UniProtKB/TrEMBL annotation, chain A:
Pfam families (alphabetical): FecCD (PF01032)
Gene3D superfamilies reported in the protein's UniProt record: ABC transporter involved in vitamin B12 uptake, BtuC
Compartments where located: Cell membrane
The entry's keywords: Cell membrane, Membrane, Transmembrane, Transmembrane helix, Transport
Native organism: Salinicola corii
Protein name: Iron ABC transporter permease
Gene Ontology MF term list: transmembrane transporter activity
Highest taxon of source: Bacteria
GO terms (BP aspect): siderophore-iron import into cell
């Protein structure tokens, strides 16, 4: 392990493995490239100079399109994708299960049931302004319920996953019931929400989600060591002095908050939380900060590109990004799996 | 301790983010407030607004795709020959709208609340609460466009039409009036009944039709039948039936319904008072031109009934 360096500043010390950061840097460049192509492409395609001009003059016609319509939407997509990817990475780590993701732990289905319930029961009176809050609350309640149900003198990852799958099924049934029994017009907006879309994102959405994600990232920084130890067998972790149950609870809560935030603003975009961490693990094999950053960057890229496809491929139709997440992510994912098998 | 101080520093840095974001939005918000305009570059983001604009003699520069007979309802095609499509009603393409440089956007709070801040950055916006209350749509759009006089003329024409039909209905049916009615929407795997507050229902109600006792007790604009066994809840003296799409699945479903004993035992089918109508006029148009087309249908049905009574 010649490439490990220790960083010490007073009481703060971290072991840093340099090698994977080159790949992270490469993905970071890819992130910037997709950001700028998302900014450039659309109904009015802009060349590099036109894009630069638009960015410099926010009040011109193209400036308005780039600053008010494209940039907030792209950033919202990136935040949603990054938060989902991080949530997925955490859950896969804590549950020690490669199939764990916000979708399997009841987070997405809890948020969906709450959002559809809100749309069909309350939206008529109060509009859709409180939809993000309802969705986030639904996600947290669902995870709380999973945790409570799986609790038997502590929790085990397997019980949590099984309980999560069971509760997801139940909540999906509730969502379906709400869709069937609600009024015609609600159903349509509910379907768009369930597909997942960052359409219509504006700066205040971006700001609110950014604050939420940033707070979660700070918590993540504080819990990072425990997130890495969560992959270790319970008995061993107890042996080296980890408060296993407390940390498992805290990490699961953090994952739920992240996914809840993402789902609240982006709708039930499925699959990102599963594939982004997997792709990251292929590119950075050692669990650590590099892997986490890689997951976040990949999640952001996936949602940004999916949204780009949604708003440009079928002009003038603007389709929900959720439709394209699987279409972009799945083949890539399969390709990686196949290459790994060989 | 050092790491805790780092956390604090980061949190403080984060606290400045919302201020930055506000700085980003304030430039767009100024366009709001100037609702009244006499200019005519209008973009309509729901079907009822498109219909109403054409009724007011204003050709929108941008409209959203229709639900049926895409991309534009046949009755509006001539008027909208040069109009740009700006995508789906549920998710219109904001860039297309921006390119049209409209000076009025007509949207509905119900569908477009989320994009209201963005829309008002592009042009003055009027938001209707619902998409199917054609009278509200007409009033609000007319005042936004300064066309109140044309709206009054349309309203007067509608009132005259309604009064004349009401009188004929009353004269024709005598003591049987008011008849009970059901406005039925046949879909591929579902049947819906539109009640008095709905778009089509409100016109039938204005003519004096009533819904049966069971349906009168319901609130909301529609009921979905939970299965074929609940067909009898539709029972009425007249049925107006629309098909939700032109597809074979809907046609097959309608044939199955008609062949069913429960259907055949209801009042309207037994007396041959089932009238097939077009879903565009009776439900999807959402505007006053659709209402006039509905009244033409009622007129034709009544005329046929009057002829039958004479012979």
């Amino acid at each position: 392990m010649a490439d490990v360096r220790a960083l010490r500043i007073g009481g703060f010390s971290r072991a840093i493995v340099w090698r994977p950061w080159w790949r992270v840097l490469a993905v970071g460049v890819a992130l910037l490239l997709s950001l700028s192509s998302c900014l450039a492409l659309g109904k009015v395609p802009l060349g590099p100079t036109a894009l630069w001009h638009a960015l410099c003059t926010p009040s011109s016609d193209t400036g308005l399109i780039v600053w008010q319509l494209r940039l907030p939407r792209i950033l919202l997509g990136a935040l949603v994708g990054g938060a989902l990817a991080l949530s997925g990475w955490l859950l896969q780590q804590v549950m020690r299960n490669p199939l764990a993701s916000p979708d399997t732990l009841g987070v997405t289905s809890g948020a969906s049931a709450a959002a559809v319930g809100y749309l069909s029961l309350l939206a008529a009176d109060s509009g859709s302004a409180w939809l993000p809050l309802a969705a986030a609350a639904g996600a947290l309640v669902a995870v709380g319920l999973v945790y409570r149900l799986a609790w038997h003198r502590g929790t085990t990852p397997l019980r949590l996953v099984l309980m999560g799958i069971g509760l997801s099924a139940l909540l999906t049934a509730a969502t379906t019931y709400l869709l069937v029994s609600s009024a015609f017009s609600t159903t349509l907006s509910a379907y768009v929400w369930l597909t997942g879309s960052v359409y219509g994102g504006n700066w205040s959405d971006v700001a609110r989600l950014a604050v939420g994600v940033a707070v979660a990232l700070v918590a993540m920084g504080a819990l990072m060591r425990h997130a890495l130890l969560a992959g270790v067998d319970d008995a061993l972790a107890v042996g080296i002095g980890v408060r296993v149950q407390v940390m498992r609870g805290a990490l699961t809560l953090l994952a739920a908050v992240l996914a809840g935030l993402a789902v609240a603003w982006g709708g039930a975009i499925a699959f990102v939380g599963l594939i982004a961490p997997h792709l990251a693990k292929r590119l950075v094999r050692i669990p650590g900060t590099a892997q986490v950053v890689m997951s976040i960057a990949l999640g952001a890229i996936i949602v940004m590109l999916a949204d780009l496809a949604g708003r440009t491929l079928f002009l003038p139709r603007d389709l929900p990004a959720g439709l394209f997440v699987a279409a972009i992510g799945a083949p890539f994912f399969l390709m990686l799996l196949i290459r790994q098998v060989r | 301790m050092t790491s805790r101080r780092h956390v604090l520093a980061m949190l403080l840095a984060l606290a400045t983010l919302p201020a930055l974001a506000r700085a980003g939005t304030s430039s767009g918000a100024e366009a709001r407030g100037t609702e009244k305009t006499s200019s005519r570059r209008v973009v309509t983001l729901f079907q009822g607004a498109t219909d109403t604009a054409v009724a007011l003699g204003v050709v929108p520069v941008g409209v959203v795709e229709s639900w049926l007979d895409k991309p534009v309802y046949p009755y509006l095609r001539a008027a909208l020959a040069d109009t740009t499509l700006v995508g789906l009603e549920t998710q219109p393409s904001l860039e297309d709208i921006a390119l049209l440089a409209p000076d009025l956007i007509v949207a509905s709070r119900f569908r477009h609340q989320r994009i209201e801040p963005l829309l008002s950055a592009l042009a003055p916006v009027v938001m209707l609460d619902d998409i199917y209350r054609y009278r509200d749509t007409l009033t609000v759009m007319a005042s936004a466009l300064g066309l109140e006089v044309r709206a009054q003329a349309l309203n007067a024409r509608l009132a005259a039409r309604l009064a004349q039909l009401r009188a004929r209905l009353k004269a024709h049916f005598g003591v049987r009036w008011p008849l009970t009615v059901s406005l039925i929407d046949v879909r591929a795997n579902e049947v819906r009944s539109y009640l008095a507050p709905s778009f089509g229902g409100s016109v039938l109600a204005a003519l004096g039709f009533r819904w049966n006792a069971a349906q009168r007790r319901l609130s909301g604009v529609l009921v979905k039948l939970s299965g074929i066994e609940s067909l009898p809840t539709l029972d009425a003296e007249v049925f107006f039936v629309m098909r939700h799409s032109r597809g074979a699945a809907v046609a097959a479903h309608y044939r199955r319904l008609q062949a069913h004993l429960l259907w055949q035992r209801m009042d309207a089918p037994r007396h041959g008072e089932v009238r097939e109508v077009d879903a565009i006029d009776w439900s999807l148009s959402g505007g006053i031109l659709g209402v006039f087309a509905m009244l033409d249908d009622v007129d034709a049905w009544l005329a046929a009934d009057e002829r039958r009574a004479r012979t």
